[in-house]
Design goal:
The chain is α/β, with parallel strands linked by helices and 271 residues long. 31% of the residues lie in helices and 31% in strands. Strand 3 and strand 4 form a beta hairpin.
Length: 271
């Protein structure tokens, strides 16, 4: 991600004990709306950090169950203003000939954030109607998981500059970093990872481990399942709905991953 896109510079007054405030420039995380259109129809507006917008859009459509295969998408283009200039906050998905989507299902947004108070049991059943449980459970090695936070932290360039971005990183079974994405929204960061795999034609992501920098919600587990990710680890805590979802879906869920210390909420580990 380009730091120029991911950050903004603002003037602040820095206060420290026993000293007069000092006016200085400070880098903060950029947050702007992205309108997602499919065939010219507006389907969603997400607040995101600019950068990797095509991946974000593809990941969003995959995890909503709207598109499944790379060949369904012909292209993604920024819409143009009345003056003919590209509008970098409006992205239109052009479907391949013969590809169809259920736009009515898109606009309903059944699965939203945990603040909406959805019923976890009913939601799990609804999600699994689209995305079946993991067919072959995995048993990640403890030593591999213990090394992941340091690898993620070393790759968070935008976080280093601002201190205000979430990150999602995908690793192989041996702990090799495959891709990392940052965003003000943890769901967006994961959608960008999924979108990266979509364009690389790597879905489903069997045999991989996802590490997220924040807490794990129901939606994070749902998006991981949609991408076929069998194991999810987090620096922070999971929610009760996330744990219930992981157990029902055959996913490994690890929270409070701090070096050799970790809590296993679903599945089992090796070693």
């Amino acid at each position: 991600m380009s730091l120029a896109k991911a950050t903004r510079t603002v003037s602040i007054a820095r206060h420290e004990s026993g000293a007069a405030p000092v006016v200085r420039d400070d880098a903060i995380a950029a947050e702007e709306p992205l309108e997602i259109r499919v065939g010219g129809h507006s389907v969603a507006v997400v607040m995101r950090t600019p950068g990797h917008d095509r991946e974000l859009t593809a990941g969003f459509l995959v995890t909503e169950g709207i598109v499944r295969r790379r060949e369904e998408v012909l292209d993604m283009v920024y819409c143009r203003s009345d003056g003919g200039q590209p509008e970098e906050n409006v992205l239109d998905v052009l479907l391949a000939p013969g590809a169809t989507v259920d736009l009515a299902r898109l606009t309903r947004h059944v699965f939203t954030s945990s603040s909406c108070g959805i019923c976890s049991k009913a939601s799990i059943e609804a999600v699994q109607a689209q995305f079946p449980p993991i067919p072959v459970p995995v048993t990640p090695r403890r030593a591999v998981l213990a090394a992941l936070p340091e690898k993620l932290r070393a790759a968070q360039a935008a976080f280093d500059a601002t201190g205000g971005l979430h990150a999602s990183a995908l690793f192989d079974a041996g702990g090799g970093l495959q891709v990392v994405r940052e965003d003000v929204g943890r769901h967006n960061a994961l959608d960008k990872v999924v979108g990266h795999a979509f364009f690389a034609e790597r879905l489903p992501l069997s045999g991989t481990v996802l590490l997220v920098s924040g807490r794990v919600s129901f939606e994070i587990m749902q998006k991981a399942l949609a991408a076929g990710i069998p194991a999810v680890a987090a620096i922070s805590a999971p929610t009760s709905a996330a744990v219930e979802f992981a157990r029902a879906s055959g996913q490994v869920l690890v929270g409070f991953l701090r070096g050799e210390r970790m809590n296993v909420y679903a599945g089992t580990l090796a070693g």
